[in-house]
Write a structure and sequence with these properties.
By secondary structure, the protein is mostly helical. The protein is 57% helix and 9% strand. The strands form two sheets. The chain has a two-stranded parallel sheet. It has a two-stranded parallel sheet with strand order 3-4. The longest helix has 19 residues. The radius of gyration is 15 Å and the shape is globular. The relative contact order is 0.18.
């Protein structure tokens, strides 16, 4: 959340000439609601189920796509298994950076009275699961979206021996 998945995902998709499947955008377009609205109306568990189903659907696409998945997908064992095969870039940032980026963002779900503690707790809980599937881990706090994109594309090309 708030690490630049959409921004970087768009750039990676353009560089690779592939469509982007973004959970936030697809939720808005497909259901006419934001993640915050869905979580407030149906609960966080419902939002996370939708996000997991979105990832699994995007990965099942017959054409290669770039997927900007919600952070919650690693909480779902089905998603963790599905992420074992494709190239996965894990974008991360310190909680203070994430909280600063979330400030004033009305589309994201609320994180309670202490957003920094909530973000830190989520990051700590999810980090071991991301580490299981990530081919490249990028700390984005001090990187431009262009730099993060370059790291991802270079790592992907290297992992594929230059054959995409």
């Amino acid at each position: 959340m708030a690490v630049g998945k959409t921004t970087v995902g768009r750039r990676v998709a353009v560089r690779l000439g592939r469509p982007l499947r973004d959970s936030d955008i697809d939720l808005e377009v497909g259901r006419g609601t934001s993640g915050r609205e869905l979580a407030e109306r149906d609960g966080t568990a419902a939002l996370h189920r939708w996000e997991a189903d979105h990832l699994l659907g995007a990965l099942a696409s017959p054409e290669p796509v770039v997927v900007a998945a919600a952070a919650s997908v690693v909480d779902d064992d089905r998603c963790l298994r599905a992420l074992a095969a494709p190239f996965v870039a894990w974008l991360r940032a310190p909680p203070r950076t994430v909280v600063a980026r979330l400030s004033g963002d009305e589309q994201r779900r609320r994180l309670g009275a202490d957003p920094a503690a909530a973000v830190g707790g989520l990051a700590a809980r999810r980090a071991p699961r991301y580490a299981l599937v990530a081919n490249v881990t990028i700390d984005v706090a001090q990187l431009s979206p262009e730099a993060a994109t370059g790291i991802i594309v270079d790592a992907l090309v290297s992992a594929c021996d230059g054959v995409l």
